[in-house]
Amino acid sequence: MIRSMLQSTRVSAVALCLVLLVPVGAAANEIALPATGAGRAPADTRMGAGSTDIAAFADALVDVAQRTNSTVGAVAALGGIPGAGGVGRAALRPETMIEQPYMVLGDLFVGLPVELSAVPIGYAPPPGERMVLDARYLNDLAVEYGVPWEAPSRFVRAVVERRGYDIGRSHVLEALRDHLLEAGMSPNAEVDISALNIHATVGSPDQVRVEVRDLYYDSRAGRFSARVDVPSGGGSARTVRLTGSVHVAVDVPVLNRPLRSGMVVTEDDIGWDTMRQGDLRPDILLDPHDLIGKATRRGIQAGQPVRASQVTPPEMVSRNAPVTMTLETPFMTVTARGRALEDGAIGETVRVANLGSGTEVLAVVSGRNAVRVRTEPMPVATR
């Protein structure tokens, strides 16, 4: 008996839904559903454009009927006739945000009984879009459903906006990255795609999904192709064919301030930046110890990777500068004063003149204005 009543209730609700779908002149149900996009047929924006929304609309009517314990109760709620509960003076909501695919009276009016507030009245705008209802439509709606309200002027309007959740480039990249990792991509790699504008708006967070299909990944070339459904698992899904590349990211030491020619790089001058390995020149210095303590041959800008040819060991001995000469043997250590005949950095061999004897010898730079004389012959190092 109860099952028969529920089935009868659902049939009645569907019948009511179909009645609402019939365009009658300037009926409120038709005016409430303008086209929301260029080129979209008006029929697509009315209630009943999709079977899923019709079912949701009918289920909402059934829910009203069940809560009022009879189909007559649902009709009473629709018409505002006695039996739906006393209705006080209603007030208009100038703006409202909804998430469900259909509108109910409570989205437009406040101060209604619970049963009347939950009555579906039309198809909601697409996710992320809005619908403007004018005074004429609102008056017709109030009369049709027995809502005690009347527009005070023809300039009154209500705006209904459906909340939207965006799916964009970041979601696509995240989905592609997960599949590429399964295909053998390095965890340190970056993913780049050819498509510039990928966007969709859905009606709930659960629908923010991207499906990747037919992925082909060439690990040697660092290239891939795939088909992507945005959003996934829905009738409005759009399939996009993408191509892209995979780049291994490398941490590169860079200067965090500009340095002029001849300045020595210190540890405080070193910063880090992440760059694509394929974009780095072979002579880029990747070890910060190859930079610290070196002098710049010419000015270097901040934030740029440093090439080996841009730095050199700092000069510790200058030409014609006085130096301390040290001669070490297994039996003694002798020091003397000399004059450098050329510039030199630590470890380099330079010519030095002994001020006491006037003899020219070869010595290795060991510190600031200090050289160590070698007893064995050695060629002069070229810089």
From TrEMBL:
Domain SAF: 250-312
Bilayer-crossing regions: none
Pfam families named among the record's database cross-references: ChapFlgA
Subcellular location field: Periplasm
Signal peptide span: 1-28
Annotated keywords: Cell projection, Cilium, Flagellum, Periplasm, Signal
InterPro entries to which the protein is assigned, alphabetical: Flagellar_FlgA, SAF, SAF_FlgA
Domain of life of the source: Bacteria
CDD domains reported in the protein's UniProt record: SAF_CpaB_FlgA_like
GO cellular component, as recorded: periplasmic space
GO terms for biological process, alphabetical: bacterial-type flagellum assembly
PANTHER family (UniProt xref): FLAGELLA BASAL BODY P-RING FORMATION PROTEIN FLGA
Protein name: Flagella basal body P-ring formation protein FlgA
Organism: Rhodospira trueperi
